[in-house]
Amino acid sequence: MRLQTTGNVQRLDLAGVLDLIPALVNEWADLRFDESGAVVHPDTREPQPQLTLREGRHRTPGTRYDLRFPTVRPTPDVASVTLRRDDEVQLSLTLTESRDRWTIDADLRHGRPPNLDLTARADLTGLMRDGEIPGIVAWLFRGIGDVAVHVTPAPLLDGSGEVLNAAGHAGRLRFGATIEVASTSTHWDVKAAFTLSARGLARPILLIARPIIKRKIAQADARFWAQASAAVTELRKELDEIEEAVANEGGPQPFVRRALWNPDDPPGTDAAVNPYSRGR
User: Fold this and answer.
1) Fewest beta carbons less than 10 Å away: which of 50, 58, 122, 133?
2) What pLDDT was estimated at residue 74?
3) Which domain holds residue 6?
4) What is the distance between the alpha carbons of residues 55 and 78, in angstroms, rounded to a whole number?
5) Looking at residues 166-189, what average pLDDT do you find?
């Protein structure tokens, strides 16, 4: 089954937001750790519990970290982070969930703009068991799932080309998606496609469900394009606010540092002008 949609939206200037990515990479490079392995705040030098260096030396391939992130449970989840590459060409990390139910490989290739590859693999049987998923759904998605996503922002800045390419499988289902963009001086012309197929006994189920799936996607597609103009207008306002906040902080690097390390006093201009700031 293959579905397509086309349309156009007002073009946005994303150069300033994309400039924040190198600043994030610089913050990563500048991290410091205490004797216990905990990352320390760059200003206060106090240890922070979110990231711990467990084995190796920072920025050296093979180094392992523990990343803690909040969940709905009383205790945070812990993911193991393994550094695969960190140089002037590429930053590559692998995240592994504490119970090995999922892994994510992230490869950021530096440039203007940078490109991103994500490859995720998950034990869908284990994840659905935890979520108490009903029988037919659990049967369809049982087993290992994986997805590979390639993101290329360059066509959003100029020219045309594929911005996103994704492909993978989840149990008995296979899927793919592409988004192509052609940039004009004022608009983005967008073409997107989605494919879905099944194997084995799931094929007749997909065949029966195909009209329903097509109808639901067509309804969602119509809603998306109906709301796209207003959404882009609102996003433009938010991008302008971020750009003003970055300028107020003195550039991308100080903006990112303050946003990461001082979440209770986020960067921005005067609170009356910019909701990203509470004022100073």
Assistant:
1) 50
2) 58
3) 2-30+111-261
4) 15
5) 94
Contacts 24+ apart (CB under 8 A), 26-34: 26/253, 26/256, 27/253, 27/256, 27/257, 27/260, 28/91, 29/59, 29/86, 31/58, 33/58
Answer whether residue 6 is part of any domain.
yes
Tokens at 37, concatenated: 């392995």
The CATH code of the domain that includes 239 is: 3.30.530
36 C-beta neighbours (distance < 10 Å), count:
8
Q: What is the pLDDT of residue 14?
A: 92
pLDDT tens-place string over residues 220-232: 999 999 999 999 9
Distances (CA, A) of 26 to 10, 13, 19, 105, 254: 32, 23, 12, 20, 11
| Residue indicated by tokens 């195909």 | 210
Buried b (16+ CB within 10 A) or exposed e, 48-75: beebbbeeeebeeeebebbbbeeeeeee
pLDDT in tens, 91-123: 999 999 888 889 999 999 999 899 999 999 998
Q: How many domains does the chain have?
A: 1
